[in-house]
Amino acid sequence: SFNLHLTLTLTGPLDHGHDHHEDQAHHSANPDRCDGIEFDAIAPDEKGNSFFFKGDHLWKGFTGPAQVSSAFFMELDDHHHLGHVDAAFRMHNKEKPEDHDHIFLFLDDKVFSYYNHSLEEGYPKDIQLDFPGVPSHLDAAVECPKGDCNSDSVLFFKGEEVYNYDIATQSVKVRQWAHLPNCTSAFRWLEQYYCFHGHNFTRFHPVSGEVNGAYPKDARHYFMSCPKFGHGGDAKVPKCSEVTLDAITSDKSGKTYAFTGRIYMRLDTHRDGKHAFPIARTWKEVTDGVDAVFSYSDKIYIIKGDQVYIYKSAAPSTLIEGYPKSLTEELGIEGPVNAAFVCEDHHIVHIIQGQTMYDIDLSATPRTVAREAPLPISGIEAGMCGPDGIKVFVGSEYYHYETPRILAFSRIRPEPKTITPDMMGCVE
Ligand code: HEM
Fold this sequence. Notes:
By secondary structure, this protein is mostly beta strands. The chain has helices at 2-11, 127-130, 279-282, 327-331, 404-409, 421-424, and strands at residues 41-44, 50-54, 57-60, 67-68, 87-90, 103-107, 110-115, 118-119, 125-126, 140-144, 153-158, 161-166, 172-176, 185-189, 192-197, 200-204, 217-218, 247-250, 256-260, 263-266, 277-278, 292-296, 299-304, 307-312, 325-326, 339-342, 348-353, 356-361, 369-374, 382-386, 389-394, 397-401, 417-418. The two termini are 32 Å apart.
């Protein structure tokens, strides 16, 4: 069992003698990632645990000591001469369930496919059997699902070259991103792409390779917990009872975003954890918070004061030309508004202003208020409509309604529910 492996790892012989460059006299073979090391590979498994590989050791998650890799990926021991993992990624390929969510490890000219930490039959095999056109002795690999990339893909790194491998067609495009350091490992975390080099990392755009922001950064501040390192300054994980939202929205593909102040958080990334980022990191022009946000067709509408910003939903979010526009011009109402939502496949945006809900038909021009209804509750600050109905948020509580009609016309006030750690990554 897992626990058994862990115990063996922690109490068993530590010196595996594979860290050729380390000074064995002064360091135990158990590497310390707070020393500032260069990882060989980084990848999440099917449960969302992140594995950081170095030599024949790995770290599971963002805290804790190094452990022997074969405790988690047993068969790697049968190939001891291979010494270390060159590259790793988690496959995203829903068309092919027998590969989807498998963790692929690359060693020299071989690839290993693991699911639930067992090696799949037929592995290890030559890399080119699974990935024709991709070289052996890789430096790094990272998955790039459709939405982030144009199609489900994998980015392989070797030296100066980036191999963009299309999973369905097995075609390879070779690129050079001269401004990006040579990545010795690469990691996708909360839909952001990180190239690791030395003990630093650089965030890059997976399609253009573009780097925006102050990079490189020392990985020890962010991806591991080390004495005298850290990040986030005074920012604290809020208590759930203190969380209040300005806006919340869920798009067709189920991506759900909550907004408060100048930050936003994806709420549907259960497996890979939750982390807040500045709104302006994703929606550049929105620098001062939001009042209401809704998703419609393949766009996201952000309302602030009397302005509406419309962005393409697909990454990278780009502002549609001509926006922001005034709320009056775009929707035929005056700001400010408190909340807004569209239910799936409908063309009506429900705008909440005080204790009134206005329905505006987005398929009509010019846009005008088609209906208005007084609401049974006051103080709504955010609202969304998803497959399981409507949620409207009042302070750190929310109310659930099945349809907009029931929200507008039922005189029975449902029991409020409280925001939980599971929903928003807050603390009890
Ligand atoms: C497992 C725990 C955490 C991990 C792995 C983590 C990781 C990261 C990473 C990778 C970045 C972005 C670096 C970049 O893209 O350049 C970041 C940024 C940030 N994190 Fe965390 N973080 C964690 C917990 C926290 C906590 C608990 C807080 C405080 C509440 C926090 C506050 C911040 C802030 C303020 C930023 C800067 C955002 C920005 O300006 O882009 N983080 N974190």
